[in-house]
Amino acid sequence: MSASATARGTDQMILRGGKPLSGEVALKGAKNALPKIMVAALLTAERCTLRNVSRIVDVAIVSDLITALGGEVTYTSPDVLEICAANLHPMERSVLKEFTGKSRIPILTCGPLLARFGEAPVPSLGGCRIGTRPVDFHIRALQDMGAQLHDESGNALLTCERLYGNKIRLDYPSVGATEQVILAAVRAEGVTELSNAAMEPEIMDLIMVLQKMGAVISVDVDRVITIIGVKVLRGFDHTPIPDRLEAASWASAAIATNGRIFVRNARQVDMMTFLNRYRQIGGDFRVTNEGIEFWRAGAKLRSSALETDVHPGFTTDYQQPFVIALTQAEGVSIVHETVYEQRFGYIDALNRMGAQIQLYRECLGGLRCRFGQRNYKHSAVIVGPTPLRGAEINIPDLRAGFSYVIAALVAEGESTLSNTGLIERGYEDLVGKLLRLGAQIVDA
Ligand SMILES: CC(=O)N[C@H]1[C@@H](OP(=O)(O)OP(=O)(O)OC[C@H]2O[C@@H](n3ccc(=O)[nH]c3=O)[C@H](O)[C@@H]2O)O[C@H](CO)[C@@H](O)[C@@H]1O
Ligand SMILES: C=C(OP(=O)(O)O)C(=O)O
């Protein structure tokens, strides 16, 4: 967050609504790809280069983690990062403690650390508080590959002589657990066949990197990924895929504020499901070789019924910003959140701003969901269009934070958002981008 825009406090932003956002923003490497690719660099002693690196907090956390493990992390230009993990050492308890609760990434070091040192402590993770987010699939998969779990006075430690390939099936296509298995299997002995794997574009990007490093990985039909372990991996030079989640956030901002935003570097192939839904509710877009431009097709937006799902479904991380657009749509919209049990914690504040959103415990959709009949309010019914008015809001998580920014820009009057630092986990230079799009930030 730039110093000027946060003049009211280090973690606060005051926005005045009522003006459409118009102009251009450019995407850099994806939040959900970059940090995992940085972890892949721990699998080799050779130098690795990452380009178009976004200066988001989650990248800074992983840079610090790699440094604390003895790796070298250097920016050779503002967005080019070099990593060399030649002098890596096992994770000490103090390092584990320092990175507890900071992001989702530290657990992905388990595979590389087991491969290099035969031991890896199991970190407690951070990330958005949108559900319980256990790591049981990660641990079970590593155990299936030969790791042993020890619980030393509450500190879980994995050890192994070496990891072995195995047939592993995930109970649910978890992104993190899929990445865990891939990162562990590339240097395991033998073949690993992972079924019910997640297939998100960011996972495919990680696989591209590992293939550049010398790994042998095939992506088969029906969510099966096969990895043949190799003894040595080499360095890589890679430009991660652009952030489709940020692209969808700006697209939602464009139609909610009735503006027009060109998102440079946005890729149609990663966003097809989102683009279809965008068009259904009355958004339009133009795809060019340089990116995608987003705007409203007509004066009014239309309501919709949708369910979040694993890729290629409607990604859960699109959900919160999109809901703000739905508050401006004519009629009744339904959103069934099937990935996280508690991703509607941000709704109360929107209702205070004038939105009419009711939450339900029932599954309001056709998908078989793990949260039905379990007391989680995971379906939302949105009645629109509703004018919004400014409010004081505390940001609970990353995407909720961006959705409140959009709501504040739609609203009449001023809104004070606090805890804006959380947004920096996934959006680089948010204030600069907002200002260039014409947002009215008080005191910026
Ligand atoms: C840093 C990163 O890439 N974060 C993304 C990643 O999170 P993350 O990798 O944490 O999300 P997962 O795909 O693992 O989680 C999906 C669901 O599986 C459950 N689960 C997961 C693992 C496990 O061991 N046990 C278990 O029950 C979770 O509680 C959740 O309900 O994928 C999510 C789903 O697309 C996105 O919302 C996050 O932005
Ligand atoms: C849920 C998200 O992130 P994380 O998994 O890092 O908490 C997100 O990016 O929307």
From TrEMBL:
<keyword id="KW-0670">Pyruvate</keyword>
<comment type="function">
    <text>Cell wall formation. Adds enolpyruvyl to UDP-N-acetylglucosamine.</text>
</comment>
<feature type="modified residue" description="2-(S-cysteinyl)pyruvic acid O-phosphothioketal">
    <location>
        <position position="128"/>
    </location>
</feature>
<dbReference type="InterPro" id="IPR013792">
    <property type="entry name" value="RNA3'P_cycl/enolpyr_Trfase_a/b"/>
</dbReference>
<keyword id="KW-0808">Transferase</keyword>
<keyword id="KW-0133">Cell shape</keyword>
<feature type="binding site">
    <location>
        <begin position="31"/>
        <end position="32"/>
    </location>
    <ligand>
        <name>phosphoenolpyruvate</name>
    </ligand>
</feature>
<dbReference type="InterPro" id="IPR005750">
    <property type="entry name" value="UDP_GlcNAc_COvinyl_MurA"/>
</dbReference>
<keyword id="KW-0131">Cell cycle</keyword>
<feature type="binding site">
    <location>
        <position position="339"/>
    </location>
    <ligand>
        <name>UDP-N-acetyl-alpha-D-glucosamine</name>
    </ligand>
</feature>
<dbReference type="InterPro" id="IPR001986">
    <property type="entry name" value="Enolpyruvate_Tfrase_dom"/>
</dbReference>
<comment type="similarity">
    <text>Belongs to the EPSP synthase family. MurA subfamily.</text>
</comment>
<feature type="binding site">
    <location>
        <position position="317"/>
    </location>
    <ligand>
        <name>UDP-N-acetyl-alpha-D-glucosamine</name>
    </ligand>
</feature>
<keyword id="KW-0963">Cytoplasm</keyword>
<protein>
    <recommendedName>
        <fullName>UDP-N-acetylglucosamine 1-carboxyvinyltransferase</fullName>
        <ecNumber>2.5.1.7</ecNumber>
    </recommendedName>
</protein>
<dbReference type="GO" id="GO:0009252">
    <property type="term" value="P:peptidoglycan biosynthetic process"/>
</dbReference>
<keyword id="KW-0573">Peptidoglycan synthesis</keyword>
<dbReference type="InterPro" id="IPR036968">
    <property type="entry name" value="Enolpyruvate_Tfrase_sf"/>
</dbReference>
<keyword id="KW-0132">Cell division</keyword>
<feature type="domain" description="Enolpyruvate transferase">
    <location>
        <begin position="16"/>
        <end position="434"/>
    </location>
</feature>
<dbReference type="GO" id="GO:0019277">
    <property type="term" value="P:UDP-N-acetylgalactosamine biosynthetic process"/>
</dbReference>
<comment type="pathway">
    <text>Cell wall biogenesis; peptidoglycan biosynthesis.</text>
</comment>
<dbReference type="GO" id="GO:0008760">
    <property type="term" value="F:UDP-N-acetylglucosamine 1-carboxyvinyltransferase activity"/>
</dbReference>
<dbReference type="GO" id="GO:0051301">
    <property type="term" value="P:cell division"/>
</dbReference>
<keyword id="KW-0961">Cell wall biogenesis/degradation</keyword>
<feature type="active site" description="Proton donor">
    <location>
        <position position="128"/>
    </location>
</feature>
<dbReference type="InterPro" id="IPR050068">
    <property type="entry name" value="MurA_subfamily"/>
</dbReference>
<dbReference type="GO" id="GO:0071555">
    <property type="term" value="P:cell wall organization"/>
</dbReference>
<dbReference type="GO" id="GO:0005737">
    <property type="term" value="C:cytoplasm"/>
</dbReference>
<feature type="binding site">
    <location>
        <position position="104"/>
    </location>
    <ligand>
        <name>UDP-N-acetyl-alpha-D-glucosamine</name>
    </ligand>
</feature>
<dbReference type="Pfam" id="PF00275">
    <property type="entry name" value="EPSP_synthase"/>
</dbReference>
<dbReference type="GO" id="GO:0008360">
    <property type="term" value="P:regulation of cell shape"/>
</dbReference>
